[in-house]
Structure formats: structure tokens, C-alpha cells
């Protein structure tokens, strides 16, 4: 059964019924068991003999021991405490200490639907374990085709909500990142507007485009939440037009989060090779410097920052997104509360 959350927990740990990126694909190596905490859940990640990734609760259904301390057996895992074996669907395959017991053949381990895209592992955190997940629709710049991307992965000691604030705040580019090789030009004052889309909204400067960090877009497909933005590139930065960033943030717990920043350009053929070489040899270190500035600012924010703010016109996207996320957290909390008596009655 999913852990039931109240409104504040859902807000701080992440909405349910969403796909969240968990970690870069390379962190889950064949033959190994990987333990992670994400969205307030304790998780076990492992690959079977075909290479398919499995995401499950890190808790043996027998005595709740850590499965991540167990044994990888190729197509299944075994708890190291009493040897209980479970497959990738969460079904108890064997109980060596008591063959034929009622636990064998039973689906007893909470298992999260998982997929891999653009070098990252995604999992579906559903409010109901029995419901089918929504389709995972990743943004076009990280879906392949004419786009090339590099994944930049971070873990910060700050709430994921602070990173969302930062991504929906284009104006900080002209100040915090003013010494960046791509954000040193353009005006340091601006008026903004919000433009609605089918999947969210765009927050943009009304009098400047393609000069600095001039807009960002909040996207919620009903399955995946992300932010997309463009950073203009000078000709010296190679082919492909603007530098597009697709960002997803996943709570680890209330005070930490994982950040996924795909740096993308629309290039193909020899231009793809040219940009990949240029990025790795000249540009990547500069982009890490920008992220380091964001990290220091987020981790340095006081715990009561939201309660002591004095917002102005540049912050209307933050206000809107906070309201949207809060309203959905309230709706989900109410729905979970309504289901709780039914589940309690079924368990008796």
C-alpha cells in the first residue's frame, strides 16, 4: 500500500500520480543493489539479467529488513536476513526456510513502474498501487531525434521547491549569473507576462528575447512535471542555435532534492559531433559554475524564507506555481483521506 500523505507532506515530498527521475542510469550497475530515498520513499533499484531496471520498496515483506543489504540473483533478489526471494514484479519466488508457505507466489513487495530515458531512470509514484500509470511523455529535447543532450545531475541540501522557484525566476540570470559567458548581456530590468499553454504556462519578458535567460516554461503533462528554458549561445559556442535546458527536480526528503538538468541543442550529423566535442572540452565547466551559484543560493536560504518574502511583479510565476502545486496537493490529500476508511475496512 502507498504511504498516505497529508497536504503538507505531499507539498514537501512531491505530488503522487507523477513520474519522477530518480538517478542517472549509470548509477544502477548490473549485478548490484542500489538504495535510494526519493519523494519520501525508501527504494531499491536493480537490473535483471536482461538489463531491465526494477524499482521496489527497500523492505522485505517477511520481517521488513533492508533488501538493499541482500543478494542479487540475476532474475530475482534475496533478503540476506532469512533468504526470502522476490522477483522484479514483487512476487515472492521462494521461501527457502519454509518451502510451500503461504508467502510463496504472493505479490508482497511494493513495486514502482520504471522506465529509462535520456540517461536517467524514472519511476511512477502512484496514489494507488493497482492503478495503471499515466504515459511517460518526456519533453522533445530529451526524446532523441534531432536533439542531442547531456545530463547534469546534482543533489542539493535544500527543498526541491526552492529549485522550482529558481527555474521560474528568469530575472536572477542578469544578477546572480551576470558573469556567465552567456548571461552577461541584456537589460537588468524587465516587465514580465504569463502566457498559458495546454500543459502549463510560459513566464517571459515582454521586451527582450534571445538575449539572456528571458523565459521559462512550466510543463505538467499529467504524468511528468518539468521546466524548459533557453539560454542564447554566441557563434563561438558552436552550431545548433539556443542552448535549451530541460529540468526536473525530485525531492529526496523534506530538506534535500535531486536535480536533473539536461543541456540540449538541436543538432544532427557533423554538427552534433562538433557540439559534443566543444561542450565537453570548453563549455561544460562553465555551466557547472552557473549551477554552483544556484546551489549556494538555494542551500543558503533560511528555513522561513517563504514566510518573510516581499514579492513583486517579477515573482508572479512563483506565486502561480505555488498555488497550482498547493491546490493539487490539497486535492490529492482529500482523495487519499476518502479512500482510507475503505482500505481499513478491507484489511479487517
Automatic annotation (TrEMBL):
GO terms for molecular function: 2 iron, 2 sulfur cluster binding; dioxygenase activity; metal ion binding; monooxygenase activity; oxidoreductase activity, acting on paired donors, with incorporation or reduction of molecular oxygen. Residues 19-123 form the Rieske domain. This is Aromatic ring-hydroxylating dioxygenase subunit alpha. CDD domains: Rieske_RO_Alpha_N. SUPFAM superfamilies: Bet v1-like (SSF55961), ISP domain (SSF50022). Gene3D superfamilies: Naphthalene 1,2-dioxygenase Alpha Subunit, Chain A, domain 1 (3.90.380.10), Rieske [2Fe-2S] iron-sulphur domain (2.102.10.10). Keywords: 2Fe-2S, Dioxygenase, Iron, Iron-sulfur, Metal-binding, Oxidoreductase.
Amino acid at each position: 500500500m502507498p504511504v498516505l500523505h497529508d497536504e503538507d507532506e505531499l507539498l514537501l515530498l512531491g505530488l503522487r500520480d507523477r513520474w519522477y527521475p530518480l538517478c542517472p542510469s549509470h548509477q544502477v550497475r548490473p549485478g548490484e543493489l542500489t538504495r535510494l530515498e526519493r519523494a519520501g520513499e525508501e527504494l531499491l533499484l536493480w537490473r535483471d539479467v536482461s538489463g531491465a531496471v526494477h524499482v521496489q520498496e527497500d523492505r522485505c515483506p517477511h520481517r521488513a529488513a533492508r533488501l538493499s543489504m541482500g543478494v542479487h540473483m540475476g532474475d530475482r533478489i534475496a533478503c540476506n536476513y532469512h533468504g526470502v526471494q522476490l522477483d522484479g514484479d514483487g512476487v515472492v519466488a521462494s521461501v527457502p526456510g519454509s518451502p510451500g508457505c503461504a508467502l510463496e507466489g504472493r505479490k508482497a513487495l511494493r513495486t514502482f513502474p520504471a522506465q529509462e530515458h535520456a540517461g536517467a531512470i524514472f519511476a511512477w509514484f502512484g496514489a494507488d498501487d493497482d492503478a495503471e500509470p499515466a504515459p511517460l511523455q518526456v519533453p522533445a529535447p530529451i526524446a532523441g531525434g534531432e536533439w542531442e543532450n547531456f545530463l547534469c545531475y546534482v543533489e542539493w541540501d535544500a527543498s526541491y521547491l526552492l529549485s522550482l522557484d529558481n527555474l521560474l525566476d528568469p530575472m536572477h540570470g542578469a544578477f546572480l549569473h551576470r558573469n556567465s559567458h552567456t548571461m552577461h548581456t541584456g537589460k537588468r530590468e524587465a516587465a514580465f507576462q504569463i502566457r498559458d499553454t495546454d500543459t502549463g504556462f510560459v513566464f517571459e519578458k515582454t521586451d527582450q528575447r534571445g538575449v539572456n535567460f528571458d523565459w521559462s516554461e512550466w510543463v505538467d503533462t499529467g504524468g511528468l512535471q518539468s521546466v524548459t528554458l533557453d539560454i542564447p549561445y554566441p557563434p563561438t559556442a558552436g552550431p545548433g542555435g539556443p542552448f535549451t535546458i530541460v529540468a526536473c527536480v525530485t525531492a529526496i526528503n523534506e530538506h534535500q532534492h535531486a536535480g536533473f538538468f539536461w543541456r540540449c541543442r538541436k543538432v544532427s550529423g557533423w554538427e552534433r559531433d562538433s557540439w559534443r566535442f566543444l561542450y565537453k572540452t570548453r563549455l561544460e565547466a562553465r555551466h557547472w559554475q552557473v549551477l554552483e551559484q544556484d546551489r549556494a543560493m538555494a542551500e543558503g536560504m533560511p528555513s522561513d524564507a517563504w514566510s518573510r518574502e516581499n514579492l513583486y511583479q517579477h515573482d508572479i510565476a512563483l506565486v502561480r506555481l505555488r498555488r497550482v502545486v498547493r491546490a493539487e496537493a490539497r486535492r490529492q490529500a482529500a482523495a487519499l483521506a476518502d479512500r482510507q476508511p475503505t482500505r481499513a475496512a478491507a484489511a479487517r
